[in-house]
Automatic annotation (TrEMBL):
This is Chemotaxis protein CheY. It comes from Stutzerimonas stutzeri. The keyword Transcription applies. GO terms for molecular function: phosphorelay response regulator activity; transcription cis-regulatory region binding. The lineage of its organism: Bacteria, Pseudomonadati, Pseudomonadota, Gammaproteobacteria, Pseudomonadales. Keywords: DNA-binding, Phosphoprotein, Transcription, Transcription regulation, Two-component regulatory system. GO terms for biological process: regulation of DNA-templated transcription.
């Protein structure tokens, strides 16, 4: 578990059940989890927070959707190299393509297996320069 020690993950997710599940799993593996529950909270976090080690980004969100947020995130000073892993519904391939174009690094489709999410997070964290 040492590879995840003190790694900070920003989770942008409005669905409480999913947010609870992800937080539970990540904290159990030693990650620190910051949660933004809608688009406004995410923008506040971008503006005020230190860049996290990785961002989990839901697409369908109140106020500002995940696509807009990815674009805004990439424009923040110091955030250009933060890995972004999208959480998306299976049917929304248009969103996946657009998000990758805007600077997302990878995606997981809902409903996801916790082990798959964890594996993709670890792969992105290993790839950081
Ligand atoms: Ca959502």
């Amino acid at each position: 578990m040492s590879e995840s020690a003190s790694k900070r993950i920003l989770m942008v997710e409005d669905e409480e059940d999913i947010a609870f599940l992800i937080r539970y799993m990540l904290e159990r593996h030693g990650f620190v989890v910051d949660h933004a529950a809608d688009g406004r909270q995410a923008l506040e976090y971008f503006a005020q927070g230190e860049p996290p080690d990785l961002t989990l980004m839901d697409i369908m969100l109140p106020y500002h959707d995940g696509l807009e947020l990815i674009e805004r995130l990439r424009a923040q000073p110091g955030w250009d190299s933060v890995p972004v892993l999208m959480l998306t519904a299976k049917a929304r391939e248009v969103d996946i393509v657009r998000a990758l174009e805007l600077g997302a690094d990878d995606y997981v489709t809902k409903p996801f297996q916790p082990e798959e999410l964890l594996a993709r997070i670890r792969r992105l964290l290993r790839g950081r320069r």
